[in-house]
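Q: Hi! First time doing this. I have a protein sequence and I read that you can turn it into a structure. Is that right? Here it is:
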Amino acid sequence: MKDFKFGDYPYNNEIIEMPIRASLGELDTYTCPNSYFSKDFLYSLDDNIEKWKNPELSDMFWFRWITGHQTMLVFWYVLSKELFAITNTSNMREIEQKLNLCTKILEGCSVIFEYTGSCPQAFYHSTIRPYMSLFHKGFSGNWSADYEPIPQLVNQIIKKHYTDSLKTPQQAFKQSFLQHQKKHYGVAKRLVPSSASLLKEAKNTEIEVNPKEENNTLFDYFFLVKRVTTHSDSLLHSLSQRIKAIILDLKLNGIYAGSKQDSSQFELSDRELYKHEEYIKSLLFEATKASVEVLSN
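A: Yes, that's right. Below is the predicted 3D structure, encoded as structure tokens:
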């Protein structure tokens, strides 16, 4: 437990190996020691804590942008597999279980949006946005291959006429997806309150947008994603390491570090911030457990 290490130094990002986007019906099973997903491990402040204290804000916010997105990609990958499974079974008990797992994963995604986009506007416009623009003038989060199948699958599920016993989990799932979308739009509006996204700006200036596969590849390159064709059990380990690093960052710095000047929504009392960040940690933990359950079965 005390040998936790992520990156070559604190707030360093690592390449993440993700499965190639194959057929959603190909459900691989992954394994990882249970201890990697225990609260004792994910919540523990180990011997490396001193090295993670007092980071340069630019290092911390770049770490949040890259590692936060990588974590989101794992959640989206797991979610798309489980959503596909829901649309291809008529077992009501199984559907209920899967809807509950998907709801927890979506709640974790909402937290990751908040964490990833917690940087100040000034940092976003001086560093993140220009770097994405250097990759492509129309760089967009819509280019994620892992998110691509999700909206259509969600739409099928929330419009499905299930039995009365599934109405409650179906509604909870729908609300978690709407919150997921709302959180994404909210972060985007805070960071870019008065101008269009890079993709919209590119379309307005008639810049050529690449074919879908090329955009998927550009997105992966930017976020240090390596696509692998062979089955690898490193996916769950990668998720565990990133969740622990995120929780460690939250414990030491809080989610709104350096950003309180951006919006009145950040002006919370210390007690409110503590409760908020404890709630964030619990949602991340539940989303991680749900992801492990999906990938391990």
